[in-house]
Amino acid sequence: MNITLLQTELYWHDPVANRAMLEERIFNLAEPTDLIVLPEMFTTGFTMEAQAVAEPMNLTTFRWMKQMAAQTGAVVTGSYVIQEKRGYFNRLIWMQPDGQFDTYDKRHLFRMAGEDKVYTAGTRRIIKEWKGWRICPLVCYDLRFPVWSRNRQADSTDFEYDLLLYVANWPSVRRNPWNILLQARAIENLSYVAGVNRVGTDHTGHLYSGDSAVIDFKGDVLFRHSDTEMVHQQTLSLDELRAFRTKFPANLDADSFTID
């Protein structure tokens, strides 16, 4: 599978400018891709002003993602602010080229920024199948909570996913945990992990160092880029992943549990 990471600066509260910028990068990709990963809140930057920027489902950004997926033949995924009757959501959209889609609402809301006071937390995780791969997309602060990303079913030793994704607006002051935890999630789950973060400084003065990365199932860093914008394409091998899982089946010794 060929995955594409888009690490960019984001225009504050300007969905039109952000969509145009991302569209240009997508259409200038060096080669075809299977999966395009955008940052968290890619239309606005990480904002607590949900009322000012929220969109309903099936409106402008949703339709833009549908168009991008159809024109590239790739899944396009990333999160932005959605409003529904129940409130506001930091919602990741998983958009396939055929227009089929799924959604994941960020489970762990970053209370230190007051995100838990503005947005409604998600209650379910999604696992998506795409071109023979099983993929689990999560959002930013979710990275700190290993139980939520645990790669096994209750009372089973089977793997649920092959690739774990994190889309983020993760400030540079905490870049060390970002880098360490991406590797930890790969090692403990015997899975590829890809994290896409933004760069630049947002309207609130927070600096972002990017550090978008691809980690393999052994915890080795296949790619990492810091501080500047970039578009990176990486090919992942399902055969190599399966061979390692067979050779080193640590999952067989994992503890069984359920999430209430």
Quick structural summary:
The chain has helices spanning 15-27, 50-53, 60-72, 115-118, 175-189, 238-247, and strands spanning 2-7, 35-37, 75-84, 87-95, 101-105, 128-130, 133-139, 163-167, 192-196, 199-201, 207-215, 221-226, 230-235. It is α/β, with parallel strands linked by helices and 260 residues long. It has a single domain (2-253), classed as Carbon-nitrogen hydrolase (Nitrilase/N-carbamoyl-D-aminoacid amidohydrolase, 4-Layer Sandwich), CATH 3.60.110.
Q: How would you summarize the topology of this molecule?
A:
Elements: E1 2-7, H1 15-27, E2 35-37, H2 50-53, H3 60-72, E3 75-84, E4 87-95, E5 101-105, H4 115-118, E6 128-130, E7 133-139, E8 163-167, H5 175-189, E9 192-196, E10 199-201, E11 207-215, E12 221-226, E13 230-235, H6 238-247
Parallel strand pairs: 1-2, 2-3, 7-8, 8-9
Antiparallel strand pairs: 1-13, 3-4, 4-5, 6-7, 9-11, 10-11, 11-12
Helix pairs in contact: 1-3
Order of helices and strands: EHEHHEEEHEEEHEEEEEH
- Uncertain residue ranges: none
**C-alpha end-to-end distance:** 34 Å
- Average of the residue pLDDT scores: 96
Structural class: alpha/beta
Provide a count of the helices.
6
Task: Describe the overall structure.
With 260 residues, this protein is α/β, with parallel strands linked by helices. The protein has one domain: Carbon-nitrogen hydrolase (Nitrilase/N-carbamoyl-D-aminoacid amidohydrolase), CATH 3.60.110. It is 23% helix and 30% strand. The protein has helices at residues 15-27, 50-53, 60-72, 115-118, 175-189, 238-247, and strands at 2-7, 35-37, 75-84, 87-95, 101-105, 128-130, 133-139, 163-167, 192-196, 199-201, 207-215, 221-226, 230-235. Helix 1 packs parallel to helix 3 (60-72). The longest helix is centred in the C-terminal third of the chain and has 15 residues, at 175-189. The mean pLDDT is 96.
